[in-house]
UniProtKB/TrEMBL annotation:
GO CC terms, sorted: plasma membrane
UniProt-listed Pfam families: MFS_1
Organism: Actinomadura harenae
Lineage: Bacteria, Bacillati, Actinomycetota, Actinomycetes, Streptosporangiales
Domain Major facilitator superfamily (MFS) profile: 1-438
Main location class: membrane
Name of the protein described by the UniProt record: MFS transporter
Membrane topology: Multi-pass membrane protein
Length: 462
């Protein structure tokens, strides 16, 4: 639900513009308000989950997200909608930042945890892929309001299930120490970094972007210095000493940048070159969503258990690279079955890649750091997605000598080549940086919290 909301609005934007009288700037903020809040608050939200208890943070985030969704669906004007989208991002950050942390502490047996991470990867991959599909269907069949209102029953069901099945976990509380300065620096720096990326779609990569980027780097640099000197740091720098942790985050950055830009560029190619409607282009993306669902939920865990996460990761990246190379050859008068369906099916390699990366990225997390490591991993995903869409959209626009189908296709080809280059970078980093983890122990188990802090969960059969 939370990942899906990052993309579900894209095909409904024209209907929102007509219904609320939104200008182009306001329309941009409907998307970017959510992305900035979500990406900027993930690390701080993860630490709050560690301190206050992850179930409490998870349920609170769901409540905020669901309430904000209702306000979005009932919004009478543009300012209300944009403010509610920002609130959705706050709730989404609080929930997403602790989800991986809960998995690492609830599932300690290697095979069990790999299956749990596969289920987690499944929800993320399919949610991202289905956003445009559901957005088009709900907008055409009902109205744009329902892309938000549908979250009410889903949010209530999720909160009730969390209260029923998740163990009540006690964090050490604020008495353990809160790095308020570090929180302010990383939140401001992250938000400014995401804003720098998303504003390039409207203002380009000129002096404005360079100035904002320099400010974001200064804030994040100050955050790193603060973490090295604070008595109780928000993000202990020890979590980044593990090569698999920082290597997996770096690989994820470039892979997600390539995947998210593929979703946008492919949708634009379908609509602007092949003449598909919003609903038709969404449905055309269904094979990619189905391939990701099958691979991440039923295939990835078994392969990781047999060959280890590094081998499975590289295999998934090679499949994604093959899909991007085929995209550089899509014709102006393309046939879906012959030219696009094989590409959609090869995109199932993301299910292999993200499941492996999730396990590797969380492999070095101690119980007390699980929330912040989860926040780092999710932050990397959001920044990678925003960077990829902004950068490759600019590449496509700069290389489209006009608005004819031929000119647009040429620009998309160049952007797809850039996306392929990102995947090559990811493969190189995976081969050089990541350590090979044996299939029998992948990923390394994290000791579960003591029974004094966490009540014993019921056995869950995945």
């Amino acid at each position: 639900m939370i990942i899906l909301d990052g993309s579900i609005v894209t095909v409904a934007l024209p209907a929102m513009q007509r219904g609320l009288g939104l200008g182009d700037a306001g329309l941009t903020w409907v998307v970017n308000g959510y992305v900035i809040a979500f990406g900027g608050l993930l690390l701080l939200a993860g630490r709050l989950g560690d301190l206050l208890g992850r179930r409490a943070a998870f349920v609170t985030g769901i409540a905020v997200f669901t309430l904000a969704s209702v306000v979005c669906g009932l919004a009478p004007d543009a300012p209300t909608l944009i403010a509610a989208r920002f609130a959705q991002g706050v709730g989404g950050a609080l929930t997403s930042s602790v989800a991986l942390g809960m998995i690492t502490t609830l599932f300690t047996a290697p095979a069990e945890r790999t299956r749990a991470l596969s289920a987690f990867a499944f929800t993320g991959a399919v949610g991202a892929s289905l956003g445009q599909v559901l957005g088009g269907i709900l907008t055409d069949a009902l109205s744009w309001h329902w892309i938000f209102l549908i979250n009410l029953p889903l949010g209530l069901a999720t909160a009730l299930a969390a209260l029923r099945y998740l163990p009540s976990e006690r964090g050490p509380g604020f008495a353990a120490g809160v790095d308020a300065l570090g929180g302010a620096l990383v939140t401001a720096g992250s938000m400014l970094a995401v804003y720098t990326i998303v504003q390039t779609e409207q203002h380009g990569w000129g002096l404005r972007a360079l100035g904002l980027g320099a400010g974001a780097l200064a804030l994040l640099g100050g955050f790193v210095v603060r973490q090295a000197t604070a008595s109780v740091p928000l993000m202990p720098l020890r979590v980044l000493r593990d090569r698999n942790v920082w290597g997996a985050n770096l690989v994820q950055l470039v892979v997600v940048a390539s995947l998210f830009s593929f979703q946008v560029m492919a949708a634009l190619y379908l609509q602007r070159v092949l003449g598909y409607s919003a609903s038709e282009s969404g449905l055309a993306m269904l094979p990619a969503a189905a391939a990701n669902a099958v691979v991440s939920l039923f295939v990835a865990a078994r392969l990781i258990g047999r060959f280890g996460p590094k081998t499975v990761l590289v295999t998934g990246l090679v499949l994604l690279l093959a899909a991007r190379l085929l995209l550089t050859r899509v014709p102006v008068h393309g046939d879906f079955v012959l030219d696009l369906l094989p590409i959609m099916l090869l995109t199932g390699g993301f299910g292999l890649a993200i499941t492996s990366l999730t396990g590797l990225g969380m492999s070095g997390a101690k119980p007390e750091d699980a929330g912040v490591v989860s926040g780092v991993f999710n932050s990397t995903q959001q920044i990678g997605g925003a960077l990829g869409v902004a950068a490759l959209s600019a590449v496509a626009a700069a290389n489209s000598p006009g608005t004819s189908p031929e000119a647009l296709t040429h620009g998309y080809h160049v952007a797809f080549w850039a996306g392929a280059g990102l995947l090559v970078t990811g493969i190189v980093v995976a081969l050089v940086v990541l350590r090979r983890v044996g299939p029998a122990t992948a990923p390394a188990p994290v000791p579960s919290p003591s029974s004094a802090d966490v009540s014993a969960p019921e056995t869950v059969q995945l």
